[in-house]
Structures are given as C-alpha cells and as structure tokens.
Amino acid sequence: MQPIRTFNVTPSLPPRLEPLRKLAYNLHWDWNVETKDLFRRLDRDLWESSRHNPVLMLGTISQTRLQELAEDEGFIAQMERAVQQLEDYHHRLTWYHKKRKLGQQVKQMGSMEGDDSSQSKIQNSECYVYFSMEFGLADCVPIYSGGLGVLAGDHLKSASDLGLPLVGVGLLYQEGYFSQFLNADGWQSEHYPINDFYNMPLHLECHPDGTEIRIEVDYPGRKVYARIWRIQVGTVPLYLLDTNIDANASQYDHDITDRLYGGDIDMRIHQEMMLGIGGVRALRALGLKPTAYHMNEGHSAFLSLERIRVLMQEEGLSYAQATAVVKSSSIFTTHTPVPAGIDLFPPDKVMYYLGYYGDGFGLKREEFLALGREETGDLTAPFSMAILAIKMATFVNGVAQLHGVVSRSMFKGLWPDLPLEEVPITAITNGVHARSCVSPVMQGLYDRYLGPRWERAGSTDPLWERVTSIPDEELWRYHERCRAELVVFVRERLAQKLRDRGASPAEIGHAGEVLDPGVLTIGFARRFATYKRATLWMRDRERIKRILQANKKRKVQFIIAGKAHPHDIPGKELIREINHFIREEGMSRSVVFIPDYDLHVGRLMVAGCDVWLNTPRRPREASGTSGMKASMNGLLNLSVLDGWWDEADYVRTGWPIGHGEDYDDLNYQDLVEANSLYELLEQEVVPLFYERDTEDIPRGWVSKMKDAIRLNCPFFNTARMVREYGTRAYFAASDRYFTMTREGYRPARELADWKNKLFDRWYKMKIESIDVSGGSQIQVGQTINVKARIDLADLSADDLQVQLYTGLVNASGDIVNGVPAVMEYQGQDPQSGTSIYTGNITYTYSGLQGMSLRILPKHEYLSSPYDLGLILWAQ
Ligand SMILES: *Cc1c(COP(=O)(O)O)cnc(C)c1O
Question: What residue range is the signal peptide (predicted)?
Fold first, then answer.
C-alpha cells in the first residue's frame, strides 16, 4: 500500500531535554565518552536495540521515561556537561588555525608591500573536499563495508578535531551493509537492513523555502536526480547523495544508491558517476567552492571530468587550461596493492556512459580513453579509475611506506622514462581515530596519567614518557576489565544469535559458558578475503590444539569475527571451515566465531583481547588498521610484516611472523609462516603472558604493553595522518588552486600554453656533448667537473632544468637510487649557439659509479617536474 501523503514526525521532547536533540544530531557523541554515556543512560535496552542510535531513541522512548529524566537532576547535570563540551569543541583554537591562519598572518605581515589582499581572502575561503564511496562513522550509520570506510570516517573525525575546513562527499545507501547470519553448518547468509533516514542523524538539505535541494546527473537517455543529506561529524559536514526519490521514474535509478558496491558493472558505473559527477554538482548546489579535492580511492575519479566541463563551459577555459586547474588542486590516495583491486571498465561502456564528456572536451575516442590508460597503444585496454585519478592529481599516495613502494612499481608504466624510486607516488601511513577506538576504560586511564592531549600528541611529545609511570598493577587491572567486558559481550551476542536461529535451550545455555575471562585471548577480526588467510592458525590442527589446551595452567583462546563478501564463495568457505573446526574438535569453549562483525564488535575486540593476530599474504595488505586500534589499547600484535606493521617497532610492541620475505610458492609460504606462528606462540607469547609475579602480574607482558601504547599511539593515528595530509597535500593544493584561478585564470592559461609549447618542441632538443674532467679512475673524495653542451632548439633555459644523475651501478648496468644534482646554466656559446651547463660531483663512497644527465621541464606554476611526463636522458 502506497501512502497518499507522508509526514515527517519528529520526536517531542520536554523543553528541559531539548538540548538532547542537538547532541543526538552531531556524531561528536560517538567519540565523547560523556555524551555516549548520557544516551546509554536514557535507556540501556533501547540503546542496544537501536544499534546505538540516539536519534531513533529520542523518537521511540516513552514519554513517561522522558518526563522522569526531565526531573532527574543528575541526568540534567550530565546533559549540561555534554552540551558544554560540544560548545567548547566548536570554539577551540585548533591546530589548523594555529598552523595555517596564524602562520599566514605572520607571513603577510612580513610581506606587506605589493601583494593585494588575496592572501587573507585565501584563508577565509579555503575548503577541502574528501570524496569516498564509503564512510564508517558509527554503528547507526551503516554505509561502510570495511577498512576503507572506517578510515574515511576516522579521517573526517580527525579533520574536525584539527579544525580543518573539510567537507565529505559520499552516497547514502538505502540498504545498510549486510548483517551476517550463520546457519547450523557455519555457512554465511546475508540480510540487508533498510535504513530509515528519518530516524538517523541526518539532515535533509533544503532551499530557504523548505523544498529539498536536488541535483541532476546525465545518464544515457535520461537525467537522474538526487537529494542531499548531511551528517554532522563534529565541525565537518558529510554530504550524502540519495537517488531513491519520486523524481526518478525507474526503479533502476532509485537503486543507484541502494547498496554499497551493489549490482553489476553497469550499476557500478552509475554509482561512480553519481559519486563523482553528482558530488561536484551537490557542492555547487550547496554554494560551496572547494579549493582542494581529495579522492579516497579511485571510485570518485569522474569528478575531475565534471570539474573540467564546468571550467570550460562557465569560465571559458580551454580543455588544457581547465585540466591545469583541476590537476593543480587534486589529491589521490590509492588503497590497493594488487591490480585486481582496481576498478576497470570496458572502453565501450565508458564511451557509452561518459562519451559526451570527451565530445565536450574536443577529444577523440582514443584520446578520451587514454585518460584511464597507460600509453601502451593497446586499444582494447580497459579504463582504469586509478589511472584517471593519478593523471588528474598532483599528489598521489599509498597508505603505508611499503604500500608506497608497491604502488610505485604498480604504476611505473605511467612514467616510462623515470627510475622506479622517483615515480611520484609517495606514502602517508594510515591511522585510526584515538577517541573512537580506545575503550572508555583505557581512555580514562590515559586521561589521568598522560592528560587529555594524548589523543593527538605527536611522537616527540614528552607526554609519552609518562606511560612508563603508569603502575603495572593499574594498567593490568584496567586491561583485564576490558577482557572481562568482551567475554560478557561475546556470550550475550552468541546467545542472541542462537535464539534468532531457533537453537535448543541447551545450546543457548552453552553460549553462557564459552571463553574464560582469565585466559590469554587472541583476536582475529577482519573481512574474510582469502589473502588475509583467516585459517592459517589452524593449518596444523594437532599442534594448535596442544597450544590451546595441553597445559591447563597456560590455556589460550581465540575470538574470531568477520564477514565474507556476499559473492566470495572461498571467503565463505573459510568461515565454515573455522566453525567446523570448532565443532569437530570440541573447541566451542576456547574458539569462538562472533557473527556480524561491525564497528561495535571491533571496538570491544581491539580492547579486550591480549594479542591481535594478522596473517595476510605480504604485500597484499596495503595498510591494515585494526592492529593499530589494538596497539592503542595496549594489545600486542602478532603479525606478518605487511602494511603498517612493517614500519612499526615490531620487536618491542609485539612479534613479527617471518622476516618480510616474498614467496612464489604459496603453499610453501603458508607452511613456513604457520610454523613461525606456532613457534612464536609456544616459545614466546604464551610463556610471557603466564610469567606472573607474586601479585599475579605478568611484568614482562605489561612492559611490552606500555611500549605498544607509548610507541604506536603517537604515530598510527589519524590526528598525525590528517596533519600530514594537511601539510603535505591540502595546503599546497589549495594554494595552487588560488594561484591558478587568480586574475581570471591567467596562470592556468599561461601554464597550459607553456605545456603545449613544451610538447611541441621538447624532442627537438639535443644533448650535443658531455665533457668530464679526469679519467675513469677516481678516488673517494675527489671531485669531477662536468660540462655539457645542449642545443635547446626552440626552448629557453628558463623552461628547463638540467641535472646530473649519479649513483651506484648494479649488475645489469643500471644506476640504482640515483641522486640528481642541478647543473648551472652558463649562457650560450657565441659561435655555435648551443647552451652550456656545468656541474660537479664529489664521490663520497667507492664502487662502480655511474653518471648520467637528464633534462626536466621547469615552470613556476608547475607543481611537479614529472607532471608532463617529459624527461630527456643523455643517450
Ligand atoms: C578497523 C576496522 C576494519 C579494518 O581492519 P583491517 O585491519 O584493515 O582489516 C574493518 N572493519 C571494521 C568494523 C573495523 O573497525
């Protein structure tokens, strides 16, 4: 039955409780212990059954209970404290303000003369926008599927904490990510809950007259409309598009924002067009003018096409000029270390859906498709969203140092003339949001001993030295409390799931007896993608059984959680295998699989286990973040040297499995690494955990816990990560945007014209001769002088930079890890007209050294010399 009219009924609160509404509609409550506590206090059962959704709670809680609370002085006082905290949060002097605004003011005062007022304008109108297909913010906003989403959510939270002028853009899915059910055989099935937007912390964006703001995106033969919802994440707004509205005629169009990563390849293109193109239009409809665009993964890369179109149509720029503006202000973060993880679309489909952009740009079919391809000349090659994003960005990064290395070799084909180590893809290591992932119990402890600043204090802050002064007994007691809470939670969750499945009372009763709150607990929670090898630990069943139970005084237990992608049959097999293992070996007390891994389960596990296990096939885990969350709570990581762990102090803060080898024989790799895992458990982990003193404190273990907190907390968090994005990417991108757009886009026009000139004339240049002083025998410390004669043809010395490039020569005759040194222009030879450059090299170590010479483009508005892909090497 369709309604003839609909009404948006909002909760009615007693006037005294009115501030609750404001608190409920800002996700800041999610990382503020006091406010979260306040909502729990409203009604404990409702808090749990609503999946921690304060908005839904306010709409469903009984009026009697509300009246009661309105007269409860204790409650009112707590509410007022929470309101005050939110108020204070909005009015703090933030990192951004200190770093950027005050810094700029000082700079301005230093250079008063000449410059117009553009500097102060810059600072007031700066806006960074962060695009992501998923956001993992809170349990009651299920629009994420895993690590990528949680990272995006944490990015927004820290951007808010740091005061960045950032907004998020994403899609609002009608169906939340699935709930996981296991049948009696341990096979996963999925249930997709329907999101009720009116009972979530969402605001519908409307015009002043109350009608909803609507944007449109062109698809073949029709327009699709979307409305815009906002979630307030502290001071950061997140705008989410929703196509499930009457203005769209077909069910297909309603379904574009139905499910995260839902449907086939056509649906995927529809979704990514809505995110990228619709997202840019939404920002315009809202009156926002971003100055830096951050693409979190390639899904949103179509946004660049839309930006170019707008600049061409509305600002009268050429395609080259518009591209220069877009490129100067775009940032791309890649998250996958494997080609299979990248979105690839068939060329015909790209032309079918987006060909009109190419037409508008004046590009031929192959020129347009080349935006998403390496220049191999293969006309059947698919269109890669990552390549589009890279070509449209000036700052490109992977998400851990090792992942940076892997990404450089994955995409090196885009810079065929550049040595691998110079491929302009850098790394910003991921992090996690401290107040979201550290348990309230531990937060209390850290606040008391370190002071509340610990959540964002950097590695050099002396505050971290105070970790050692936390009494062992206290740290251990707090940690044991987290473990006990986890055990209680697991028992309840299991019983609940068994009841849902209609299990027998005996089975349900048994759920109350699983796990032992005093036993060494190993946690493993992650997506069940096969490369994560969730069953590596049970490869030798007899051996793991001995480890778990042979010694009654040194027992070990496992808590496992995770979802497989609905189409990932091998992933589902792994879940079944674990459940079979539990049953066949009679292990149901010491090995538990908790269904329905989500933020809440994750938070309890990373606080209540003792050891965090991670066994991906290196280097396939780009970063991984759950281990960081664990470390922040004082857990010890037991992990293959992959992702973030490879750059952590893995000896002091846990144990490395293996030594960072790469294997060709996967079966052999499994065997070696499983053995390494067993040995570590038998010889190091279990003994250290059970080595107690007379007060039953494992001193050695606690000391390692302190190292984990002290060394990993300050670095592997999103406060550090977002600061890095700010200082390394956003500030510069935004500055470049202002540079490019000033004086009616004069610099953009100049840069585009100059680029055209370079493309035309570059290859006419000739390196005529290179003269080197001295012979081929040189001693350490000796300097050699180099003089080069170069025919610049139609270019001028201002257009380029000539570099000497030196380094050790490897067995195959290539210079490795070469170091460039700029050569000086000495003017032209009056006779021949060739340009003369000189430079010198001092050899500081011995061995076979090679030297070469190369020429790179140079222009004041060029953000990187590699931008054009032009580089001329001496032959
Ligand atoms: C942190 C987190 C992840 C990411 O963990 P990985 O270690 O990257 O696998 C996934 N899902 C949830 C719910 C999380 O909280």
Answer: none
| Strand ranges of the sheet holding 591-594, from the earlier edge strand across to the other edge | 591-594, 556-561, 520-525, 611-614, 636-640, 654-657
Tell whether ligand 1 has an atom less than 6 A from the beta carbon of residue 643.
no
Whole-number Å distance between alpha carbons of 720 and 793: 48
Looking at 3.40.50.2000, 2.40.10.10, 3.30.479.20, 3.40.50.1400, the CATH number of the domain 96-430+728-741 comes to: 3.40.50.2000
DSSP assigned state of 867: T
Indicate yes or no: pTM above 0.85.
yes
Q: What is the CATH number of domain 765-873?
A: 2.60.40
CA of 683 to the centre of ligand 1 (A): 29
Q: How far is the CA of 223 from the centre of ligand 1 (A)?
A: 37
The segment(s) of the chain belonging to CATH 2.60.40 are 765-873
Asked if residue 747 has a cis previous peptide bond (ω within 30° of 0), the answer is no
Give the nearest ligand 1 atom to 598 CA.
13
What is the Å distance from ligand 1's center to 117 Cα?
46
| pLDDT surpassing 50 at residue 91 | yes
Q: Could you name the CATH architecture of 448-484+518-714?
A: 3-Layer(aba) Sandwich (3.40)
What is the per-residue pLDDT across 641-678, written as a single tens digit (0 to 9) for each? 999 999 999 999 999 999 988 899 999 999 999 999 99
Ligand 1 pocket test: pick from 30, 139, 150, 599 the residue with the most ligand atoms within 8 Å of its Cβ. 150
Q: Are 858 and 820 in contact (CB under 8 A)?
A: no
Question: For atom 11 of ligand 1, which residue has the closest CA?
Answer: 146
pLDDT digits (tens, 9 = 90+) for 761-776: 999 999 999 999 877 7
The answer to whether the CB of 639 is under 6 A from ligand 1 is no
